[in-house]
Design a protein that fits this description.
Blueprint lengths: L9 H14 L9 E14 L18 E14 L4 E7 L4 H15 L6 E5 L7 H5 L4 H8 L2 E5 L9 H13 L7 H17 L10 H7 L10
Parallel strand pairs: 1-4, 4-5
Antiparallel strand pairs: 1-2, 2-3
């Protein structure tokens, strides 16, 4: 399934260029650039005992399985530092997002003066979610800690946290796991390993390149 941006859309390119400008900012501990995204994970239980891998034979899993519900994975990553923080929740609600944002503010980046947060424009990713979760004074305090920068609609590929989620799924979750505790255990181990390596996303796409490679997305200006 492809995400196809609209042709000649000024709103799209304006949001895109804002995000790409943010990615040019140098590293700053006082004003870190953090990318945030979330993804569901289907929990699946084996109905028959798998055959373990043997010499010359791959492991075998039966085609039948049992669905055990869905959990949600929240990802925050700081591309320039090579750090990421992952939390798993049972639901995907405004309050779950708001609590994760508070943890970014008060736990992961408690010493920062201002946090630039890049994310997609999902309806739950809004300051209103903070006010639906916390008292007004607390909601405003958390909101003031951030500068929210939204990727354009149909432009989630501009979010580096989406890349990190794909790495997480391929390296850690590409098998059947039937309970949230095991998912949490596996993800925490992955997070520690990847953070210890300071694994970074080598982002090279810029506004100059966008204006050439994605020229069809820009409005035509007649002179």
């Amino acid at each position: 399934m492809w995400v196809i941006p609209p042709d000649k859309n000024a709103q799209f390119v304006a949001n895109m260029e804002q995000v790409l400008d943010v990615y040019k900012q140098p590293y700053s501990a006082s004003n870190p650039v953090v990318c945030m995204d979330e993804s569901p994970k289907q929990m699946i239980k084996e109905t028959r005992v798998p055959i373990k891998m043997q010499k010359g034979q791959v492991a075998k899993h039966d085609s039948e399985y049992e669905r055990c519900g869905v959990c949600d994975i929240f990802m925050a990553c700081e591309p320039l530092l090579g750090k990421r923080f992952v939390e798993i929740t049972e639901k995907r609600t405004k309050k779950d997002w708001a609590r994760f944002i508070k943890n970014i503010s008060d736990v992961y980046y408690k010493d920062a003066n201002k946090i630039t947060l890049v994310m997609d424009n999902l309806n739950t990713h809004s300051p209103s979610s903070l006010y639906e979760t916390f008292k007004p004074e607390e909601a405003k305090r958390i909101w003031d800690r951030f500068e929210f920068v939204y990727t354009p609609k149909h432009g989630s590929w501009l979010n580096m946290a989406e890349i990190e989620l794909k790495v997480l799924h391929s390296q850690c979750l590409s098998r059947r796991i039937d309970n949230i505790d095991e998912i949490n255990r596996q993800i925490k181990a992955w997070q520690i390993h990847r953070n210890n390596r300071n694994a970074k996303v080598k982002w090279q796409f810029t506004n100059d390149k966008a204006r050439i490679k994605l020229k069809r997305l820009y409005p035509t200006i007649e002179t």
